[in-house]
Amino acid sequence: MKNIKNLYDKYVLPTYGREELTFVKGQGSYLFDNQGKKYLDLYPGWGTGCLGHCHPYMADELKKQLTELIHVPNNYYNISQAELAQQLAELGFHGLTFFCNSGAEANEAAIKLARKFGSKDGRYEIITFYNSFHGRTLATVTATGQEKYHKGFAPLPEGFKYVEFGDIDALTSAVSPKTCAVMIEFIQGEGGININNIDYYKKIEILCREQNLLFIADEVQTGIGRTGNYYGFQTFNVSPDVVTLAKALGGGVPIGAMMAKPQYNDILTPGSHASTYGGNPLATRAALAVLEVFKKENIIDNVNKQSQYLFNRLKSIKNETSLIIDIRGVGLMVGVDITVPASEIKEKCRKKSVLINNIGKNTIRFLPALNISREDLKKGVDVFEEVLKEAWQ
After folding, report:
1. Taking the model in full, what pTM does it have?
2. Which of 104, 137, 329, 369 could join 52 in a cystine, given CB atoms 3.0 to 4.6 angstroms apart?
């Protein structure tokens, strides 16, 4: 086998910090490297692997689609796209869907919808939150309330304001005659698994209604089961005007979606927005397969059961050591603040064949497959506990 690292060094732009791992096979919550070593993956595909790796039903559906039709442009009808839009509506968001390829694209579509919504009376400003993350395109990186992602890309697009996450007074004060929308993650994933209470999100919804602002929910990470409901807004008991999805929607196959309530269906008219590959037959068949597995295997029930176990175990570890400062999250989206460098804990877990993720200097993030078994979750937490206690001693 060729030296993969040399090929990357020679031919691939260095836009990622890569670990010395080359995976060649996946099965359930496990990955296998090119040396045959097996790893338990507790953040499959940064949250895209909601069913783990290579779920048999999903693999069979994709094989069938590959022999039937891979791509057709969006100026023709596509049966699986229509069926997927219907199912997404029936799961609890009664609106219309625009399909694209990623979370950033979905958020771009939401930003364009908001701008066009406000254009009739000169409004274009969108309020987002510090420590948020909305994507890597120029508009979505500007919407992201973290300066480290802005460096080197000036001048950034105008029309974005940031306020402190959790401060309703700051948000209210930030609204101006130019404001057209508020865009929020109910749980800030890349910001460190930051979360607020239901009352806070309800106040945002009320503010948006009073000020005629679009209430945009970025559910790229929280959507499709991650919080123990199909949508995060169901967990937090609010009703946004616009919802964006990606990651878990395709179970690892690239797909994004921007959904808007019916009263906004005449804003993005033919020619005003598009995506060449968006919602093609292969991607939408993958998403339909994901939703079918959710129903057949009671995935939402599993999320809630395994979440309770995970939180109980982490709280127990916190009580036994002085290394855990805080545990945050909902469902199977969990952040653990620790007193030692998170990157070191991640590395030690990797050496014990368990893959976890760190955010910043001191936060470990768990995003396991939503169908993970109790046995596999226990195995992963056992290793995490073992590594922490070794550091504690």
Report:
1. 0.96
2. 369
